[in-house]
Write a structure and sequence with these properties.
The chain is α/β, with parallel strands linked by helices and about 475 residues long. The chain is about 30% helix and about 20% strand. The protein is built from 14 helices and 23 strands. The strands form 7 sheets. The protein has a 5-stranded parallel sheet, with helices on one face. A 5-stranded parallel sheet has the order 9-18-10-11-14, covered by helices on one side. It is globular, with a radius of gyration of 23 Å. Bound molecules: NADP nicotinamide-adenine-dinucleotide phosphate.
Amino acid sequence: MRKRFAIIGAGMSGMLAAIKLKQRGIEDFTIYEKAAGLGGTWRDNTYPGLSCDVPSHVYAYSFELKGDWTCRFSPGAEIQGYFEGVAAKYGLTKHFRFNSEIARAEYRDRRWHLSVQDGTTDTVDFVIAATGVLHHPAYPDIAGLKDFEGPCFHSARWDHSVALEGKRVGIVGTGSTGLQIVPAIVDSVAKVKLFQRTAQWVLPLANPAYSEDEKAMYLGSPERLRQSYDFWAQRFVDTFARAVVGDQNELQKIEDACRANLEENVPDLKLRRKLTPNYRAACKRLIMSDTFYPAMQKPNAELLTDGIGRIEAAGVRTKDGMLHELDVLVLATGFDGHAFVRPMEVVGEGGRRLADAWAVANEAYRSVAVPSFPNFFMLVGPNSPIGNFSVIMISELQIDYILQLVDLVCDGKCRAVAPNAAASARFNAALREAMKGTVWVSGCKSWYLDRNGNPALWPWSFDRFRAEMQKPDLEDFDLAA
Ligand code: NAP
């Protein structure tokens, strides 16, 4: 029987879901997107220096590898261009409905009833929420933030009408974002002041450009490109993915590399001390850069570690009483990584609200589904193995798993499918137990941790994730007849 689908979100995961539906001959779906265009995080983030610190060859759909990336780690605009090209090539254009935020999704009379912000409605059999993780900007709760008289914006809402050349620029935040912005602007601004609350471990990672010969070689040889994809994927699995979930040898290697990077590249002992973290490497998301330390040693760069007291009309006053006068203030203060699916109101079977199910914590069954929410699936949902890894590969494994459940309904084996409460509880209890062995709870604060201090990540090996995503265990699901 023909079924209708709604995909929510036109970023990497939503587009992936659409392509996979089309590959099964399913055309009756709409991709709802609240913004005016596709691309998700790559549409929203346009700050100077933006690039992906996952290698280009592995940061692409496995079925649509690209041989002519300009460098090992692609700039954001190039990735956005890749997704635009994929959307056109796979015929997604007619399925997008932009400027259409889903306000509410309610499961009633065996179907999902969607209300769009603009007042229109839709009724579908399946919802695939591909609403992203690092999406809602987190604005810092700093006294006087509104008093600043110059331009002030979040890194994910970059104001390109503001020219930085020759200006005094303040940057709050030393995450992956802040540490990419500094090297990108230091040579053109009069002064860059980086306000650091917590030092970061930085893994040195060069970003060489691919030569024309290399690009031609990868374009001409899908096998070589596939080998490069497999190589980088396996490297992450063998090293980083192991280190964070308990392999002390791998973790030590990463920490040693970070420490050596700091010692070899920051000779000034006072600056080095300020840049030395007091927690284990990879406890926060690891920063990859070989340009940050050199940038911080340029004469017009300054690292402020006294803490921000308040923000005033003319600049930032640090806790030591100093006023740092600024022309522009950039908030590289990250995202709310726990707002999964929100603010959409989702009402499942028997009027059960997702907001209530998640009142204490975002708990899903294997990241993709929630008990009492039949035929509702998530891509890159809670506890997906995100971190320093290709989220595209994760999303691909999840959609293949989800579509096996969808098939049960489409093939008439059941009317609806949702994980059962006992299986979900078992899974989440095991997650909590396994978290105790991860580096994320070894003594730092990060966006990984939810309000209860629990990491929203996958605490086991990537191989286990891959194995668990191969085939749903139907014992764990309620199949409604
Ligand atoms: P982030 O890692 O969450 O960093 C936010 C920064 O803002 C931290 O240094 C934090 O300090 C600081 N901060 C927040 N509130 C503050 C306050 N009130 N006062 C002073 N400092 C404050 O955010 P992000 O750098 O945007 O990165 C988020 C994630 O996006 C990354 O971890 C990564 O997953 C992804 N990302 C990836 C790339 C890439 O692939 N290259 C690039 C950018 C982002 P504390 O550390 O003290 O909390």
